[in-house]
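Dear Dr. K.,

Following up on our conversation at the group meeting, I've run the structure prediction for Tetratricopeptide repeat protein from Methylophilus aquaticus. I'm pasting the input sequence below exactly as I used it, so you can double-check it against your construct before we proceed with anything downstream. Let me know if the numbering doesn't match what you have in your notebook.
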Amino acid sequence: MKDLQQEVQFKQALKLHQVGSLTEARGLYLDLLNAYSNHPRLLNNLAMIEFQLGQFLMGLEYIEKSIDIDPTQFSAYGNRGAALFALNRFEEAFSDYNQAISLNKNYAEAYYNRAIINEKFGNLADALKDYDQAVALKPNYANAYNNRGNLLKELRRYDQAILSYAHALKSNPRHAEAYFNRGVILKELKKYPEAISDFDQAISLKSNYVDAYNNCGNALIELRKFEDALSYFQKAIQLNPDYAYAYNGQGNVLMELKRFDEALLSYEKAIALNTNSSDALNGKSNALQALNRFDDAITGYEEAIALDPASADTYANRGLALQSLEKLDEAIQSFDKAIALNPEIADPYWNKALLKILMGEYEEGWRLYEYRRHRKGQKEAYPVYEQPLWLGQVPLHNKVLYIYPEQGLGDFIQFCRYVPLVEKLGGKVILSVPAPLYSIVKAMGLNAKIVKKDEKIDAFDLHCPIMSLPLAFKTSLENVPNAVPYFYADQAKKRDWEQKCPVTSKTLQVGLVWSGSAAHKKDHDRSIPLEKLQPLFSLPIAFYSLQKEVKEQDMAGLHGLKQLHQYQDEFVDFSDTAALVDCLDLIITVDTSVAHLAGAMAKKVWILISYLPDYRWMLNRDDSPWYPTATLFRQQNVGDWDRVINEVKHALEKLLITKT
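The predicted structure tokens came back this morning:
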């Protein structure tokens, strides 16, 4: 431009363009175009403004004129390529980027944009080369490092991807997407605290980052920080009320919190927003199953399978619902289908194991039961040792076997009966015991060295988690080691209870446990509200609460029950409970550790079993092969405790007649 005034006007337009005042800049460019209609840079700049305003076709007219006038403008080809890309004209855009690079081998942006198209075309190796060239030419190219990290993530080269994101963040510490993308990989690698830190950093830079809130919520679920996770999903929903993924995640949290009705509503909202979400359909069906709506659950699972026929998880969950309807053969078929689809996940094997044991098919059941150690989230429960796992495969003579606890206290009580059998094989035993059971296990008269859980142990040759002992001894229904008692009350403590409790031989003395730990996954099925027991309290019986934990909803009802003696604050460990149990005529309990304690002490025990029984109680029988002194009272319909309590009341009335 030869005219000084027009030169000033062009510089003014450039300045307005750079600060984002596009309309004003456009007006000045158009004025100049009247005098300089063949000025390639002016045409290029006008094209750029049209592109920025979303007027791609008009912009293409300007830039094509610019290229016709000066075909050596590498940046013009790059700019036209970007416009063509925005118009989904990828082949033409790719050609323009190739032309730009042929004109300028050092044009980093063209390599970057060509890499994006190569990814879209599935040319991942070429895309990676282009990203590598872009960052080689421009070492502070944060976006290129970020996209390169995304490509490496897709190639499952996670360590290199993380390094690429680190370069992006070094170049631009405020690159929210790089934090988010690195967080996604860290979550995939199960490095949840680090992932959460990156998601939070992304959110701090971009407060409306819905995907980061959602992913952070999912990572918090893995850390079992459910209330925190719920707040993140709720924030995502607040930012975007139509964000289906967040409703699905919220449903998952509410399931963990046992807020099943709310979970169902959340999944239904996710499905309304995305009718093709098999995950949300699976989640909805899980909620229906938790609400004991098994037919509806199965319908939902089948809809999810129609959308995703390769989902092993859905088949496994469907199997559980079929089992709940006592369609046992179909349940096994569903578990088998899950296993066939994904032999690497443990839950279908585990579900099948529990069903097989429930059905009395112990040989296959105990073998499959070993998959419990490989289930998600079980790593800490089953530490890895250098010494071999013992499952009965080698003689124990002159060997030291370390046996350690797993799962609940009731499980340990049930299966520690095997320790004397291990000792008879000639080996030495180190037995690790949960602290609440330490005193009573010490009183078993074992030769084993007994230590408290997490206490330092001596050297050993072999190890075995306690619930693998049935497999090690090839346990069948015919050879269950059910000699009782093998637990005994401390006689000094028993005398103390006899002095402090109004125990007499004239009145029937009954121990009572109506609920278990709220933390138990199936507690909503196995526990009974205290108010349901009112018919029993009308009988002339002295009841003794053996509860250690009393739920808040039961506290008010306890105050008015004079015939229910309460000593929960005096139960320091199970030796205290056992001493009181030994004073009583009968124990009535839901499926908790006290049921096992009473059975192991050969006390008369009535166990109240839900419609969906735990595997150890089997099906359609009122006795237990594990505890000869036990009688089982079973629900006949889901959730119907009234009939069970009525049966117990009639049985107590018969005992009262005998007592008198």
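Two things stood out to me. The longest helix spans residues 641-659. The chain has a mean pLDDT of 91.

Best regards,
J.T.
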